[in-house]
Specification:
The structure is a homodimer of 396-residue chains. In chain A, helix 7 packs across helix 11. Chain A has a domain of 132 residues: Thiolase/Chalcone synthase (Peroxisomal Thiolase, Chain A, domain 1). Chain A has 396 residues and is α/β, with parallel strands linked by helices. In chain A, 37% of the residues lie in helices and 18% in strands. Chain A is globular. The first copy, chain A, is built from 14 helices and eleven strands. Chains A and B meet through helix 2, strand 3, helix 3, helix 5 and strand 8 of A and helix 2, strand 3, helix 3, helix 5 and strand 8 of B.
Chain lengths: 396, 396
């Protein structure tokens, strides 16, 4: 009986350069993507009814930045809600803006994700990120960093299925390959398996090149109702489904470390809503962005999303099936690994990338063939505390 | 053209005891209101499709508490979005849950606001709250506490309109009077004008008894679509409008200090949507909860909401027109002043109170006469960075 009554389209998209953005302040960084989103939509600030904003901001002294971001962007006195679901906060912002339009509360809504992680030093950021695990049980007692949490997954996965460190490395090589062609990416450098294998261990078996970086960046989307979208654009991209799920934050309570259970649930919900066969989703989906905060996370995502059978995700990597021309191209933006991972901007960034992929507007070396007109974003918060899976489509 | 396609009803409500809650941990405090909300709605956790959660949490080391709150409350793997708009975060949670239901994304949604401010010491909390002003320009340069910001308002208001400190004190006396009868209130003590006038100055002209306290507490609402509400309850309370607006965070950029401009805008939007005459809203509204973080804030709210003409709000206080039997009864819960102000729980708490007022379920000494079946909540974030105005009604 749950059903959406108004269709929602993406009609504008903006993306800042990702990287160490000491050249701009926080508000300028936000404006970089908002301005581009407004321009691609062909609207002005006054047309926007509602803003959903994601900024995790642990590294900032400003506890409530939304009003000031709006003011800098010329959006005062518009209504805003700031949202947070850790590293999936960007998807939560898009979901909130989506609900604003689908509910009729807004005809045009802005979703903006922004993070300026270099406001603190690296060691502070690494500690603050570690707290996003199960704070009381894990961080307070054992003090792992985030790579430590994902090393647990990598350990059990490799032990159970026989994946090798070289298989993980293949993910990093692929994502750096595509990031090289993305002018907005933080690292534009092709790397080799040897580069990854010789990089220093951070938490065995994960090495430096298995990890996404600390990144500053912002990304923005303009969403509109069908009626408004039809007036403003000839090329709307429809949000067919944007579904979230949660799991215990406490890894000691998980059944295993080979899968993120909330990802499986969110994918199932999204596939059902979008009419995608959960057994063979790659038959429908032209291109996907998945949450490769660490290389093992991308391999688990292949399985959690049904791109590969359980225990066979690493074979997709080994056989290069997630390059263009393979079973399903994944992270043609460079992914979190190479494009960068500004925590609360990442989910929005994924959807900016997929919108441009569907509209065939990315650089030719990393443009997926668009056959079905369907794309998927998979965005994980914490160690799977939160997951959102989103399906975008050229057809309503 | 903006319109809501699905009606949304409140079908359950819960409220923890407010105060210094060192008797419970954070998760137990949340469960106190969630349990009551689920029980009053006559549902179980599995019936909930979506959760909107507000927790400002500056005083906590846990950066992303939503997943753990859900787990403790038996709500994993439900979708959650945590929201923040400073002291109006609770209204943002209700708005987000409202949009989830109105959009068809959920048939039943939970809004939960929670704050455990005593996790830090008083001086830390006072400093952290001060940062919610315009951080860079005001806090960093001048270091005011929050009472300092509102003292600016009180100064200009008294200077311009001839209000006296005793007029401000009348607000505190009224709200303590009603809080005395509210078993969930933090302070259950009637006070006199002399008590207020002899309390120590915090920031002239505001004294200790002009200020709301540091509070732990939670509040929760269950929202449902019309179809579901009709099945589950004979007494739904409808959300007729829940509208937000923003203003510059930087007080130096405001036109004056006698009004909160975002409150005027949010009220105008809410009145329009709910069909309330903005010139005489008290003709429609039986009872209101307004954001009396400081006594001057309640007086400005009277004017911003149209309960009094500009410059005459203090006369409503002087003439006791906002007691039961007056022009419009305000803060019969005790308000932030006496009930307490657990930052991100406050907006949800206001709506729990108004739901019970409309259903005539509060203690008789503080029950408003319900004639039109309409109630208003006014919830301010920061120094007016964010404002939400909500209209609840017994009729759809």
């Amino acid at each position: 009986m749950v059903r959406n009554l108004r269709k929602v389209a993406i009609i504008g998209y903006g993306h800042s350069k990702f990287g160490k953005r000491t050249d701009v302040n926080f508000f300028e960084l936000g404006w970089e993507s908002i301005k581009e989103a407004i321009n691609t939509a062909g609207i002005s600030q006054e047309d926007i009814d509602f803003v959903a904003l994601s900024n995790f901001g642990l590294w900032s002294s400003e506890p409530s930045p939304a009003a000031s971001i709006l003011e800098y962007a010329g959006l005062t006195p518009k209504e805003v809600i700031r949202v947070e679901t850790a590293c999936s906060s960007g998807s939560a912002a898009v979901k909130t803006a989506y609900m604003a339009v689908a509910s009729g509360s807004a005809d045009i809504a802005l979703a903006i994700g922004i993070e300026k992680m270099h406001e603190s030093g690296t060691s502070d950021v690494v500690e603050l990120l570690g707290r996003i695990g199960s704070y009381f049980w894990e961080f307070e007692n054992f003090g792992p960093t985030f790579v430590g949490y994902y090393a647990l997954y990598a350990n059990q996965y490799m032990h159970k299925y026989g994946a090798k460190e070289e298989d993980l490395a293949k993910i990093a090589v692929k994502n750096h390959y595509y990031g090289f062609y993305n002018p907005k990416a933080q690292f534009r450098k092709k790397i080799t398996i040897e580069d990854v294998m010789s990089s220093p261990y951070i938490a065995w078996p994960l090495k430096l090149y298995d990890c996404s970086p600390i990144t500053d960046g912002s990304a923005a989307l303009i969403l509109a109702s069908e009626e408004v979208a039809r007036k403003l654009t000839d090329s709307p991209v429809w949000i067919k489904a944007i579904e979230g799920a949660t799991a215990t934050a406490n890894l000691a309570k998980r059944d295993n470390y080979i899968s993120i259970p909330s990802a499986v649930i969110a994918a199932r919900k999204a596939y059902k809503k979008a009419g995608i066969d959960p057994e063979k989703p790659y038959k429908h989906i032209d291109v996907a962005e998945v949450h490769d905060c660490f290389t093992i996370a991308e391999i688990m995502a292949y399985e959690d999303l049904g791109f590969a059978k359980r225990g066979e995700g690493f074979k997709l990597a080994r056989e290069e099936q997630t390059y263009i021309g393979g079973l399903i191209p994944v992270n043609l933006s460079g992914g979190l690994k190479s494009k960068g991972h500004p925590i609360a901007a990442t989910g929005v960034s994924m959807m900016v990338e997929l919108t441009k992929q569907l509209l065939q507007k990315v650089e030719s070396a990393r443009q997926a063939p668009i056959n079905n007109g369907t794309a998927l974003a998979h965005n994980v918060g914490g160690t799977g505390h939160y997951v959102f899976v989103t399906i975008l489509s050229l057809s309503k």
